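Q: Two folds, back to back.
A: First:
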Amino acid sequence: MNILIVDDSNDDRRMLCTVLKANGHEVMEAVNGREGLQAASDHRLDLIVSDVLMPVMDGFQFLRNLRKTSSVPFVFYSAVYDGNRDMQLAASLGANGYLIKPMDPLELLEKIERIAAQGGQEQSFSGEEEAEYLKRYSQVVAAKLEEKVRELELDIIRRKKAEEEREELREQLIQAQKMDSIGRLAGGVAHDFNNMLGVVLGYTEMSLEQISPDNPLFANLIEIRNATERSAELTRQLLTFARKQYVAPTLFDLNKNVANMLAMLRHLIGENIEISWLPVAGEANVKMDPSQMDQILTNLCVNARDAIAGNGTVTIETQIVTIDGLSCIGHLWHVPGEYVMLAVSDDGCGMNKEILDKIFEPFFTTRETGKGIGLGLATVYGIVKQNSGFIDVRSEPGCGTTFKIYLPRQMAGVEPTVTERPSHSVVAGCETILLVEDEPALLTMASLVLKKIGFRVLAASSPVEAIRLANDHVGEIQMLLTDVIMPGMNGVDLAKELNALYPEIKQLFMSGYTGDVVVRQDMPDENINFIQKPFALNDLAARIREVLDGVSQGQGAGGKIPA
């Protein structure tokens, strides 16, 4: 058949052309009724398929003018439909059918072929019918235009909403990238700072051993050591934000963890603020380092306390929440699954959007100078992201604030708590240690300490120098003590190179990053010995002794790299 398609929608014309041509029909196209009339005048047609609402000349006018000269079968195919009134007008004009978009292509093909086989119909109009037609036509077209306007309004609203969601996702992506960049920077700063702290701490401890407690300098050195340890705590917060700190994940019931913290939290926030504890019924198991949960609760409760002027209430509650795919729309970092939700709410002053957008940035604080460094919420952010969770915050000025922490729910039974590693006294050694550290001051200090307690030390400032010393050395090397991050070659690759020369060599890695990413990626063995910088000299000596003697490790500054 020769079929004319009249439709102002390119997509609809393309779909019809594809279906009809695939079934052997010849197809012509027009975009409005005026073009359709011209095509019907110039060609012999077996069927016309036309839309209703079109520019220049709509489908009803097209059919009415067509019927003055032609009885070719005519089918309306339209998405705008107003019930019987449309069909009655179409039939009165001589239409052979009225089909509603969208329709299954095979069903559509079957119907228009059946209509074409029935043939068209003649149609003539008297003056009275002309007036009635104009009246009915005006009513139908007006109704269709109103419906079309409503559709356009809804489409504009949908488009505007979609654009707002895209803009929100773009802002979330920019924020996530910014936080990731700041995290990498914070981790790098903490790594280098830990090296310097290690030097200060090491020389301070060596100085303390060489002077009497009665010496006036002894107290000064104690203060230096204390300040160094406090600085190390600051770098641990930076590493938490950068998600590069040492953690020992344990399966535990969050309800019990919070309950055990309540007494401390009440003391922390003061008597003028009440804590309301609303645990979910049953177990709320999560897997993370329990000390990290303590950090989250402490930071959130301190922020809640500072937001409340006078008396108030902090509400802590837990829930079991299922996040589906629909809930993740518009939230870049949400992942479907079952979560334990920890909410900390206050009835304090609240925050405006400008502050809310910056609260997780490190060093951002609304407190007075000297009252806070702005790492509390950045630390919370880092902990939650490290444990595959996410955070929602709701706040308005004068209406308080709610932080909701979502952590993946674990269904297994709670694991027993690992006991702390017992302290070790320093035991002298006589083994040979290959010490590799690219920070000169730290290399010198560590070399002095190890020699002082009896070890033979081969000190190298780079992996290349370490390999040369190992090749030139006569005799055994019992241990490799190496930094992880170094220019040219990292400590893990160096260890692999030395294994070929000394298959029995023991290895102890050290780094300003704890549980360093390089170690995790390049060494599949979970039992990698590790100590975090900065370390006390006694801890370093004890750790070396443990590794040389093959003593099993627990948690602490030294230990196995977590998987």
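A: Second:
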Amino acid sequence: MKMYPTNRIIFSSLLMRLLLFILPLISLLSVASGKGKIPDWLSNAIEQKDAYDRIEPDAKSLVLIDKKEVEYLGGGNVNSYAQYAIHLKSRSERELASAYIPLYNKSQNLKSFKAWLVFPSGKIETFGRKDGYLEARDRDALHSESMAFLLDKTRSITKGDIVFAYEYKVAEKTKFLQEYWFFQLASPTVHSVFELKLPNAWEAKGTIFNSDQIVSTQTDEVYRWEASELPSVNLEEYDRLPHKKLLAQVGITIVPAESKNKEDLSFRFENWQDVSEFGYKTFLRKTKPTLAIQKKADDLVAGSETNWQKIQAISRYAQSLNYMQINVDLNSGGGYEPFDVGKIFERHFGDCKDMSALTIAMLATQGIDAYPVSANVDEEAFVFDSWPSPFQFDHCIVGIPVGKDVVADSIVEVESLGRVLLFDPTNWYTPVGKVPSYLMGGNVLVENGQTNGLAKVPNLGPEHFQVEREIYVKVDHSGGLDGRLRDTLSGRMAGRLRYLYRSLGKEEFDEMLLSWISAQAIETTIGSVKCEDYFEENRFILEIEFSSKYYGRAISRKRMIFSPVFLGRREWVPPSDEPRKSDAVIEPYMLSEKIHFELPENLVLVENPDEFLLETEFANYSLKIGSVENTVIAERKLVEKSFVLPANRYQETVDFFDQLTRAEKRPVVIGFK
């Protein structure tokens, strides 16, 4: 589903994932004896041996230096220089002894590369370009020019207390005039620097996020952003906050002086309208429908009486295309430009921008306007409003202006367009009009060439994430049972199960269901499995027949106990032994469940727990158990709200689910009349 393999942002994120730790209490002053074998910048970095105590005493590793210098030469020519050093405190950190340098296309050339391993004894090993190799960055893409240079020295790390470092230079040709830099990784950082050199009279504007420790300075045509002694940032349990909200970073927009060279003025993004115009023009020249597309669209909408019906028909077809990632000519805007819609239609596959382009072209044949929409999938739809840039997006969907007669969850208000329906043709398990979960609550940019601001996607409530469950069980004298379950799922919950049902084979799907049901009972088997998909309503029904030899447990010759809650919940919230650093994100969800335990005629409910109620600011829960004649009935309901719980209140979630777990484990007692 991913699109938009961007320029610098992916480079930074890859470093964040692959290169993380360094520098303990080591006496590497002996490295000085290796004068000439390592550069001065590395010698200076190694001397920061006391940084652990100042930044994070319990850290397992430390980044000594993370520096990048980018020089714009004019005419689209750019040189990048990087220096990186990391101390590996123990052999367990050996996977971090790797250099990974993305090369997006043929216009990027690795001019030089050098790396070092510095051992505590003072021994130094040096490596060059010949010691690394090129590999494809996008292995799942149908076609991609993106490569990466990789030097992997993980097998050289047989013990700890070692520094891995490298430097390189890349020359490239690009039309983009923006940069992006993460100062903070998943481990403490001693010093992080981004330096930008520009031609005379050029300017740069930096927007800093998530930190007051970043210092910016300017000298003539040199702009510099740096931060020192930054603690680590690690995602914690029950934490769905995107990295963008946690890591110190800067987004930079470059403003060139007036120039006769068109390359200097190619892609300037000083406001959101610039980004909107760029996306609109990029798509406009590729979305002219062919006669074949016209005919297919006419066939699809035959019998439709309203535009909404036409939109539904064309959307269903668009979702039938096969998704294939295609990345070419990225530094010249190719990552944002679809293929011609005629070619997309003929081959019946494409990536998200291709599938969106064909949808737009088909709608145009019916007189329905539609526009490309830039979205973010990897970072949970989060986009900084204060830095207009296509680099913040990694996905393309479709925006369709609609009237008030169209009622749908995925409608956003857009400046200059009014009500716009969002549709993702790559998401074949969410019907048009519904909001994919990865977009909820986030920002998107509808690119009609005029929009000068982001649109907020609705953050829907628990009723759009609902499971209604009815279970009928017959219990025998030995504690075995036979039962049937019926789940009616709606909204995102329907989409999740629909995805599994369509993507897994029958055997694997049934095994998944068996694993789910057998978690509560010994020697469980499942019989028939029936699925009904009401796609347009975004509703999915699952019916399962099952049996278990051992569910109830005899506690005497006349008494038996069993849990009134047959299926476990999906939540597990771990306790926090140490003070939490990041907020806890609660996602909306609703479960309404009723279980009927039919007992043998000579058995009745003897003892049952009292009704259990629990209400908090972020969730409510109830469990009630009773009986009608020889049937025990258990009813439970859980409602979780969309909520961000501050880090200092995380224990509230732990306590909430701990009380639920204990309440659900309370058994009922049945016995002979």
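Q: And?
A: The first helix runs from residue 8 to 18.
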